[in-house]
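Problem: given the chain below (322 residues), write out its structure.
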Amino acid sequence: MRNDLVAALDIGGTKIAGALVDGGGRLLLRARRSTPAQEDAETVMAAVDAVLGELTGSLPWTRVTAVGIGSAGPVDASAGTVSPVNVPGWRDFPLVPRVARSVGGLPVTLVGDGVAMAAAEHWQGAARGCRNALCLVVSTGVGGGLVLDGRVHAGPTGNAGHIGHISVDLDGEPCPCGGRGCVERTASGPSIARRALANGWRPGPDGDTSAAAVAAAAHRGDPVAVASFERAAQALAAGIAATAALVEIETAVVGGGVSRAGEVLFAPLRRHLREYATLSFVRDTTVVPALTGTDAGLVGAAAAARLGGRGTAEAVVGGRPS
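Solution.
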């Protein structure tokens, strides 16, 4: 049987997902655990091992040649460590060697979740064929990755494009990253929900206080819910405009769980972007929804694995892993 599969891990503050992925980006087998984000390092790693255990115990595992990881960041691809802002138990955690041990020494490639999303969207999604793009993950946190001159650009440590920790409010709230007024502190799902609750929004009978519940209320016209998404969109627009001014992107691709709010998010985002992106070389920057959906992290991690480590420094060329 051909050795034509790679294993992919998508690690975030809410979930740890895994899959076996073929050369066309199709997910053949899935596994998932909730992230015990507030627990100690070994408890979080046990959840990763549980996902890996489901994959390695499957019959198709014999066809796997490499493992790719897209993780909430910051990551250090050169050292193989991760320090996710929303997983405080992992600080300089040696994720790559730990995963390599669990998979029998197969090659393991690490990228940030935003870079993974950029790789996925450039391979199969809304950034396919784009020369210059910013791809954003708006979820429990806010991450990002860049496509520059037709290539996924991850930077030396795998964090380039991390828009979530651009400061857009000099007097804003402290961020767990150590900064203040970061995009993530305003635009992430938990931030949207927290702001809505603080300003008087109340959940329905089911008690759901998630950003998805706020989005549903906004679709029904609840003014507090609408205002919370408006503020998130403004922060995202400011970060996108700043990125466009630095590297002249053509488009911003927005994915992650919060993007499923649809026009409640995208309509004010486009409006605010017109207000911030006013210079001649950035005013035509477009915003589009991601196409790879909740599988973006897995598809992008698989793309990085197929690049054999070059995914953190080189390219997804011509819309396909080279």
